[in-house]
Structures are given as C-alpha cells and as structure tokens.
Amino acid sequence: RVFSREQLLDSVWGRDIYIDERTVDVHIGRLRKLLNPGGEQDPIRTVRGAGYALDDRFAKAE
User: Fold this and answer.
1) Is the pTM of this model over 0.85?
2) Rg of the chain on CA atoms, in Å
3) 3 pairs with which residues across the strands?
C-alpha cells in the first residue's frame, strides 16, 4: 500500500496543524538511515508522485 505525504502527516501530527509536506521526506530519510545503517536494502520504497510504501520483501520476512 502506498501512503501519500498528506496521509502520513495527518496520521503523525493530525489535521489541526500545518506542516509542509516536504517535512515527510526529511523524516523518511532519517528512518531509512536508522532502519538500514549499512545501506544494503531500503525497506521504504518511494513511489514517485504518490508517496511511500514499505517494500514487500521486508513485510514477508516477519
């Protein structure tokens, strides 16, 4: 499933506050560094023009 930046913002900060959608990109970048310090496989997939999704390979591993 692909989550748009707006959906992620609403889920994390709520609808009552205005935060630029590009803020999500910064936080996704930080998550990527924490989840994958070796830089091997990225568990977060960027869907251009749509948002972000978790890579299916990582969801099935659990």
Assistant:
1) no
2) 12
3) 52
Question: What backbone torsions phi and psi does residue 17 show, to the nearest 5 degrees?
Answer: -130, 145
Cβ-defined contacts of 6-13 (< 8 Å, 24+): 7/51, 8/51, 8/52
Taking only the tens place, the pLDDT of each residue in 3-62 is: 999 999 999 888 888 888 888 999 999 999 998 888 778 889 999 999 999 887 766 554
Per CATH, the number for 5-60 is: 1.10.10.10
Q: Strand 44-47 relative to strand 51-54: parallel, antiparallel, unpaired?
A: antiparallel
Rounded to 10 degrees, the C-alpha dihedral 31/33/36/37 comes to -150
Would you list the domain boundaries of the chain? 5-60
